[in-house]
Amino acid sequence: IKNRKLKAPFVIIAGGKGTRLKPFTDILPKPLIPLGKTTLIENILDNSIEKGVKNFYLILNYMHNTIQSYFSERSKKYNIHFVVEKKALNTAGGLRLLKKKIKTDFFLINCDTLINIDYKNLYDFHKKNSNDLTIVSCLKDNSIPYGVINLQKNGEFKTIQEKPKFNFLVNTGFYVLNPKILNLIKNNENLSMPELIRRVKSNNLKISIYPISKESWKDVGSWDEYNLIMKK
To answer: What digits encode the pLDDT tens for the residues 8-39?
Structure first.
């Protein structure tokens, strides 16, 4: 999916310790985990460039010197601005550091999230609906591998449901944000993305969902998902 140039900045949250990918992340930061012929972070960058993105911000903390050194030795094909947290600020706290740097609506993605969609369509959807926050979401199927027992109010047996399946609309970790949201974050505040989303809602700002297919999203944040991708 190749699109014309997108002027919107592309922010990547890449400061976490990647605890789900230990012991690898004891040695190297999660963004530099090998994926195919390159690294996880370069997969995101290359995919985004192909979709028309030109301008990147990487929010760093854990092993930030290693990541910065890695890119200093690569070709200059990436237009990256490094933003380093003085202390770990969780998945959303570091966005406050962009307040004076970004004045337009921007993309935001976790560094373990691979998304293959038309970014221009997503951005147009965000703007046309006058959204303050657009959350890219995916319908996921979950099944319980047991017979689930339902009880009556008095505690007696009612029914048994064999291996039931449930559908959930889940957050992929990819967003488009209006820069006014940055005003909702305090300086040096440890803030998670779910907490920021609740804050956006409580301030009566507009949040919309942009649904994508489950084939369009890969979460590389755990060994199970990582190994699944590497087998393909």
So the answer is: 999 999 988 777 777 777 788 888 888 888 88
DSSP string for the chain: ---S-B-S-EEEE--S--GGGTTHHHHS-GGGSEETTEEHHHHHHHHHHHTTB--EEEEE-TTHHHHHHHHHTS-TT--EEEEE-SS--HHHHGGGGGTTT--S-EEEEETTEEE-S-HHHHHHHHHHTT-SEEEEEEEEEEE-SSEEEEE-TTS-EEEEEES-EEEEEEEEEEEEE-GGGGGGS-TT----HHHHHHHHHHTT--EEEEEE-GGGEEE-SSHHHHHHHHH-
Does this model's pTM top 0.85? My answer is yes
What percentage of the chain exceeds 90 in pLDDT? 58
